[in-house]
Amino acid sequence: MKEFEEMLHTLHPPSEEKKLTPKQEQILKAAVEVFAEKGYASSSTSEIASRANVAEGTIFRHYKTKKDLLIAIVKPFMRGFAVPFFAARFVQDVFDVPPEKLEDLLKTLIKNRFEFVKENAPLLKIVLQELAFHSELKDQFQEVFIQEIFPKFEEAIYHLKEKGAVVDFPNPTMIRMIMSPIIGFLVTRFLIAPDLPWDDEKELDQTVHFIMHGLSKGTGSSSD
Amino acid sequence: MKEFEEMLHTLHPPSEEKKLTPKQEQILKAAVEVFAEKGYASSSTSEIASRANVAEGTIFRHYKTKKDLLIAIVKPFMRGFAVPFFAARFVQDVFDVPPEKLEDLLKTLIKNRFEFVKENAPLLKIVLQELAFHSELKDQFQEVFIQEIFPKFEEAIYHLKEKGAVVDFPNPTMIRMIMSPIIGFLVTRFLIAPDLPWDDEKELDQTVHFIMHGLSKGTGSSSD
DNA sequence: ATGTAAAGTGAGTAATCACTCACAATTTGA
DNA sequence: TCAAATTGTGAGTGATTACTCACTTTACAT
């Protein structure tokens, strides 16, 4: 019940954007709940209103349409997730560091983003579900991930390849290989089996280990 | 237009289950289309009927509810995907084969399942989307994947660990690491960017390479 | 205290929804 | 050939939907 306030702060960081009225926060909180539970299309504005202890008209006072409400929820989440990747240090850190420390660096980044997702697990579900159907969300995804995060990865990969520490797969393939096990863990951890007794630290370490070894050259057969 | 017949055969293999009337096939074909396009909840039975050139009542003659129609589509797809894993040979093949050939064996299996998914790409989308919301589909998933496929993997992993060829992560973690890059590829290949000029053979080879090396012991740090 | 703008309300609305049913057309079996 | 069973039809139905709007309440500056 308490960590929702932090989540809402993430949704609408107090630094930017106008501050929200209490009812507005209740609406956002209820909408995240309902959207995550039933999916956007199966959620009714009347249920969101009643769960937020608010009249249905109040929702439409602040959000012109139901889809506007969805976007108001998802957009800040995506931007919030991407924030660390905007740091100029990101790429520099990756290729300045000696290869044997790279694993630790990746771990730090991933653990940080893991905590962010952990605090916003329902948002992860909403994004993964609705990205497929709403072009507005796709555009936002394109803006944040493909235009900001992916190029950072590509630059880092470029330097790793130069050092010869890494297999020579195409960049999109390598990025997919880096992200797939991470997303696979996040989805299992928060969506499929959130109630299992997870040792997050261990799982993340093993996931990073898996990625690094999977991308490393050689391992026994030193053919090419 | 033509490969739909094969797909429908996969949906309702002629060996079992009663044969379908032409209208019934049109309904299934249209339903797959519409469900994949707009998602189950946003699809209307009236649109499915009109796209199938069928009266709306005809749908409900064969499927009591809209959800019954969804299940009639998804269930055979899941069963069809699992078929090769039911083969008794599966595990035996994996641990009888010398480790250096294991990669080839995995490739063969994965390429085979890849072709199956390729012929039923819209079904993949429907399953991934709707699994989250319909307990009937979760049950079917449980039945097929968790009770049939996962144990086969566990047995194979047990023998691989015995041979000492593989890191000692928990079985669920290892299964996740095997499946994540494959699912990541399938999702990218068929849902996110199906129109890219894919070299499927190469991508699959690299994905298997990535998995095998990621799970292999050692590579530099032979600490534990 | 008072005027004004913003926030909140909930009954009302037209559209759409999944589903029904009385009936028509077609297929089947003997 | 003909009756019975199966398959197909589409107008009709009650429920639910996102959204509106005339109105009330609250917040705030002077």
TrEMBL record, chains A, B:
Keywords: DNA-binding
Presence of keyword DNA-binding: yes
Domain HTH tetR-type: from-to ranges: 21-81
Keyword Translocase: no
InterPro entries in the cross-refs: Homeodomain-like_sf, HTH-type_TetR-like_transc_reg, HTH_TetR, Tet_transcr_reg_TetR-rel_C_sf
GO molecular function, one term: DNA binding
Biological processes annotated in GO: regulation of DNA-templated transcription
Origin superkingdom: Bacteria
DNA-binding region: 44-63
SUPFAM superfamilies, per the entry: Homeodomain-like (SSF46689), Tetracyclin repressor-like, C-terminal domain (SSF48498)
PANTHER family reported for this sequence: HTH-TYPE TRANSCRIPTIONAL REGULATOR RUTR (PTHR30055), REGULATORY PROTEIN (PTHR30055:SF222)
Protein name per the record: TetR/AcrR family transcriptional regulator
Origin species: Halobacillus salinus
